[in-house]
From TrEMBL:
This is Uncharacterized protein. InterPro entries: Isoprenoid_synthase_dom_sf. It comes from the Bacteria. SUPFAM superfamilies: Terpenoid synthases.
Length: 78
């Protein structure tokens, strides 16, 4: 269930860049408990985002239509 990056970081002792490892260390919990905690945090944050989104202004109404910002290929000197 855990990613390859998680296993590699844990094996290297690189525990500062992976939220699961940080949660394990900060809360003294098992990997499974850290996963459940992260799942709960993610759900809370997403629910908050959706609530805030309903109260955000429609920027098209404020700014008007925005220019087409579609990416175009860049000609490289040959």
């Amino acid at each position: 269930m855990c990613s390859c990056a998680l296993r590699k970081e844990a094996a290297r002792g690189d525990r500062a860049n992976n939220l699961l490892l940080i949660l394990e260390d900060q809360h003294g919990c098992t990997r499974h408990q850290a996963i459940e905690r992260l799942r709960h945090l993610t759900h809370e944050r997403f629910a908050r985002f959706l609530r805030l989104e309903t109260h955000s202004p429609d920027f098209d109404d404020i700014l008007g239509p925005l220019p087409d910002l579609t990416r175009r290929p860049v000609a490289r000197p040959g």
